[in-house]
Specification:
The chain contains twelve helices and five strands. It is of the alpha/beta class. The radius of gyration is 21 Å and the shape is globular.
Length: about 250
């Protein structure tokens, strides 16, 4: 994007502190309130009262119930998930999630909109916690926490095993395509002895609870599994964005 294009885009943005005034006359509203279902239910009820009857109401939730939010409105057929992945100005994925009463036309409109924005939408056909992306992500996180807590490897080595191995490959090949290329007989054989050994924890492990209890919340607090003192967070984010943009260009 050129500087002129960026300035033109900025000129099209309007901000305001009054919700009702902000959504007056809208065709689509995408909320990004904090991940608290009660907060979102209350917000959707307000949006339902304030938006035109034909407006679509979407949520950027990472995995909360679309159906519960839709039930707070009188237009459940026009409510859906529209989850942009962080950083949203770079990551192509957008999850369009159908609630129990979401109309097919609503889903198709949002899929078409995401494509118009240059994104890669996927349709989540059933309203399940975490949708697709976070269910895959947290399956990996759960196993990573298990490996760390069990003393099998350090945080640095666990991350390296992902970024220098499957993570690098997943930028081009998803897990099911990877299985196809390796051979489904091979993956079935490995599954036979490995699935039973993987973590099936239903609660956060102590290694995570302890860090949170100490106020070590990650980059935003200055420490987590790693240290983020000084300008380390800013430098890491800048490097992340540079690498992601180069990877997208290569793909």
């Amino acid at each position: 994007m050129t500087a002129a294009q960026a300035e033109a885009a900025r000129a099209r943005l309007r901000t305001g502190a009054c919700l009702e005034a902000a959504v007056r006359g809208t065709q689509l509203v995408v909320e990004a309130a904090r991940e608290d279902l009660a907060v979102k239910e209350e917000l959707f009820a307000r949006l339902d009262r304030s938006c035109p009857p034909d407006a679509i109401l979407a949520t950027n939730t990472s995995g909360l119930s679309i159906s519960r939010m839709a039930a707070a409105t009188g237009r459940p057929g026009q409510v859906a998930g529209l989850h942009f992945w962080n950083p949203p100005h770079i990551i192509p994925l957008v999850e369009v999630t159908r609630g129990r009463q979401t109309a097919e036309a609503t889903c198709q409109l949002l899929v078409a909109l995401a494509r118009r924005l240059g994104k890669q939408p996927v349709l989540v056909r059933h309203d399940i916690p975490g949708f697709i992306g976070n269910r895959l992500q947290f399956a990996v996180v759960r196993e990573a926490l298990h490996l760390l807590q069990s003393g099998i490897a350090s945080a640095e080595d666990i991350d390296t095993a992902m970024t220098a191995g499957p993570g690098l490959r997943y930028g081009l090949l998803g897990p099911l395509r990877t299985a196809d290329l390796a051979g489904l007989d091979v993956f079935r054989a490995i599954s036979g002895y490995l699935f039973a050994e993987l973590s099936n924890a239903s609660q956060a492990p102590a290694v995570l609870d302890d860090l949170v209890a100490q106020g070590k919340l990650g980059a935003k607090s200055g420490a987590g599994f790693y240290d983020y003192s000084g300008d380390q967070r800013q430098r890491l984010l800048a490097r992340r964005d540079r690498v992601l943009l180069r990877l997208l260009a290569a793909l």
